[in-house]
Write a structure and sequence with these properties.
The protein is mostly beta strands. It has a domain of 101 residues: Beta Barrel (Lipocalin). It is built from two helices and eleven strands, in the order ββββββαβββαββ. It has a four-stranded antiparallel beta sheet, with no helix packed on it. A four-stranded antiparallel beta sheet has the order 5-6-7-8. A hairpin with a 5-residue loop joins strand 1 and strand 2. The protein is flat and about 45 Å long. 19% of the residues are buried.
Length: 154
Amino acid sequence: MKTVKIDDFKNYNFLSGLKFSDDGRYLAYLLAHADFEDNDYKKALFVMDMKTKKSKQLTAYDVSSFLAFKGEEILFTAKRTKKEKESKDKSFVYAINVNGGEASLAYTFDMPGLKLQKRKRLITKYWKKFHSGETVLVLNQEKDLGCIYTIFLQ
């Protein structure tokens, strides 16, 4: 049996955040790999068409987390611009079509004005409530090891 060395982790890819669209046609997921220089994992968003069984990469390796489907759009968090990367108190939610194209900034949230409460429920359930006018949104925070939070906007 071969001994695994730290440098071997550079060669591995990790899947996370697998979620189906409401109609079951698409499967979105994050593909991550270790970045030893930044002591972090770099993640990109992929989507698989369940009819054709073909996957394609939708984003660069700059995604923080995958949130939910909104029709044929996928919502994800990222800090893409220099100003966003310097911001420590904001969360930036982008939307991209499942067929590809350029992601656009959909929402920006100020983090200090939010009250966090742990929940173990589906993101899409809360997204539908938020999208229909209620003030509830679930964010999957990158550093919280997959915990899902309900965020009540104040």
